[in-house]
Amino acid sequence: MDLPANMRPGAFIGTAEVYARYRPPYPPQLLADLVASVDGAHRFLVDLATGPGRVALDLAASFERVLGVDLEPEMIELARRRATDRGLGNIAWQVGRAEDVDLVEGSVDLVTIGEAFHRLDQALVARRALGWLRPGGCLATLGANERFTGTTPWEQALSEVCDRWMARAFPEGWGLTMPGQAPGPEARERVLIDAGFASVEVHELDAPVELRFEDIIGHLESTSTCSRHALGEGFDEFAEELRATIDPGGNGRFVEAMRWGYTLARKAT
User: In sequence order, what are the residues at sequence separation of 6 or more whose Cβ sits closer than 8 angstroms to the Cβ of residue 168?
Assistant: First the structure.
């Protein structure tokens, strides 16, 4: 399959540290609501496309054991170090594709995918997860609205700068999902229903964040389209242009209206 450059393996090379530092954490209230939505036992959590372990680490205390899987070795290495730093000994880490994970059927209570379902073979992963889950178990895809796409003047100016640099880096365009898959929540819900889940529900939470310029450029550096790997030697020039555009004084504070959420698919009991 011919993939857009930003969807290929290695698209997140060199981003693990900035990913862990500058991606805002999921709101605790949202994660608590997710855990409470999983009826019955909380024995085994599987976090696919775990990155540096943002979901796995924060949910580890609510489950007896956790497995975090990611395609990028540097992400798994950082996740492992962060787990050690936090004294979490119940997490196993695995380098590999989510599509290739092999688990005992009926052994999992919750499968999570944070901000990465669009990068996976959704139908295949949904079908395989349905098999891993015990009756009544759940699959949850987590995320927030697309960053920096609001109507504030600074977000509109940021988008113009990013689009211009991304067009240079990806002259053939970039992908929003894997080829053959439709973007958006309705398409995601349809995939889960078609896979055989008994019900699908959406939970949302508005939680604005206050940002400095360092938070904004750090987040962009963690993406597959504006990272140092994607923009190459032009990244520093991109960062300078962006600062001059939205934060010329160097001490700005920005408020982003973020809507967080998760889509919960439940296996029949």
Answer: 231, 234
